[in-house]
């Protein structure tokens, strides 16, 4: 399934990077809390889910969007066949991801191997698991493998990196390095230290996207600038969310503009962090198009020009997602 350096792995196969258009890099299509599908009060009506998601994807395309990256990884509702149908129907490219985390969302199989004493899975086992989803195709439970994942993704525990989180980070980095794909992770409590773990695995910094950097605690710690200074991608992935944990869009726009003016326009990525359909947990019901309809005008009001906007929305994610 190898592709050349000018293509990206989508659910319908390799797509040239210059055909991706505007990319939203940290979204969720169908997100199911593990086990929620067995709850008595939760239904998974595929026709209803398809209609809801297709409507949101068509809205994204109508406002200029081209590609959505589903960054939920394995075991959290990822439905490759559904995503294939959605992409064919809406014309929106969909990039699905492999990976999992943080520790609290892993199944016991990955936490308590039959060792004495029980230990986390080692990084090389995670690396093999994730790599095979790229080289052999993503697993459709109990049925088959389908197309290759286009991104390796994980997350670190909010309270701080655990031993299992470190195994996940290292394994994800090794998988990305071995397969030529990129790594995206949502940081826990110290973005710079967690990035250092990934870079210790020799993955080039520009192949790493660090999410969650529009959290207030991230900004207070100077994390966006620290990540950019290491040459990694800075992801503001809660555009439109305004709560006690995150910046307002006005503050977010000022922060992005400041990074652009500091010379980091080639490292910035934007996303809504929307959940198209959520089962078993609250959804972020914002539309995927929010960046285009509401946030881009704010950036322009802060003096970010059309060229930098296009770089942030098109060139930067294409460079990240390109298989090389």
Describe this structure in words.
The protein has 324 residues and is α/β, with parallel strands linked by helices. It contains eleven helices and 13 strands. It has helices spanning 46-62, 80-90, 108-111, 123-135, 163-179, 191-199, 216-220, 223-229, 249-261, 290-301, 306-321; strands at residues 7-10, 13-16, 22-32, 65-70, 93-98, 139-140, 144-145, 151-155, 183-186, 208-211, 233-236, 268-270, 275-279. A nine-stranded parallel β-sheet has the order 12-11-10-9-8-5-4-3-13. Strands 1-2 form a two-stranded antiparallel ribbon. Helix 1 (46-62) crosses helix 2 (80-90). The mean pLDDT is 93.
Topology readout:
Blueprint: E1 7-10, E2 13-16, E3 22-32, H1 46-62, E4 65-70, H2 80-90, E5 93-98, H3 108-111, H4 123-135, E6 139-140, E7 144-145, E8 151-155, H5 163-179, E9 183-186, H6 191-199, E10 208-211, H7 216-220, H8 223-229, E11 233-236, H9 249-261, E12 268-270, E13 275-279, H10 290-301, H11 306-321
Parallel strand pairs: 3-4, 3-13, 4-5, 5-8, 8-9, 9-10, 10-11, 11-12
Antiparallel strand pairs: 1-2, 6-7
Helix pairs in contact: 1-2, 4-5, 5-6, 9-10
């Amino acid at each position: 399934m190898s592709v050349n350096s000018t293509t990206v792995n989508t659910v319908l196969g390799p797509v040239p990077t210059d055909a991706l258009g505007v990319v939203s890099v940290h979204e969720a299509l169908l997100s199911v809390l593990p086990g929620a599908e067995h709850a008595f009060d939760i239904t998974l009506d595929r026709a209803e889910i398809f209609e809801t998601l297709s409507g949101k994807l068509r809205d994204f395309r109508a406002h200029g969007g081209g590609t959505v990256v589903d960054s939920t990884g394995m075991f959290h509702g990822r439905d490759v066949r559904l995503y294939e149908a959605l992409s064919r129907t809406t014309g929106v490219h969909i990039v699905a991801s492999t990976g999992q985390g943080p520790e609290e969302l892993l199944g016991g199989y990955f936490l308590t191997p039959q060792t004495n004493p029980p230990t986390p899975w080692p990084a090389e086992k995670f690396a093999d698991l994730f790599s095979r989803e790229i080289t052999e195709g993503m697993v459709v439970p109990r049925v088959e493998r389908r197309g290759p994942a286009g991104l390796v993704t994980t997350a670190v525990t909010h309270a701080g990196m655990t031993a299992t989180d470190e195994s996940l980070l290292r394994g994800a980095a090794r998988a990305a390095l071995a397969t030529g794909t990129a790594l995206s992770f949502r940081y826990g409590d110290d973005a710079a230290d967690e990035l250092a773990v990934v870079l210790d695995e020799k993955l080039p910094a520009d192949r790493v996207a660090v999410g969650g950097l529009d959290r207030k605690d991230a900004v207070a710690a100077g994390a966006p600038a620290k990540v950019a200074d290491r040459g990694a991608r800075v992801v503001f992935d809660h555009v439109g969310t305004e709560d006690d944990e995150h910046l307002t869009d006005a503050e977010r726009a000022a922060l992005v503009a400041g990074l652009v003016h500091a010379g980091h326009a080639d490292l910035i990525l934007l996303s809504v962090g929307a959940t198209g359909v959520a089962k078993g947990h609250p959804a972020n019901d914002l539309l995927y198009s929010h960046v285009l309809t509401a946030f881009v005008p704010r950036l322009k009001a802060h003096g970010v020009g059309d060229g930098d906007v296009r770089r942030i929305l098109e060139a930067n994610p294409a460079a990240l997602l390109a298989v090389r």
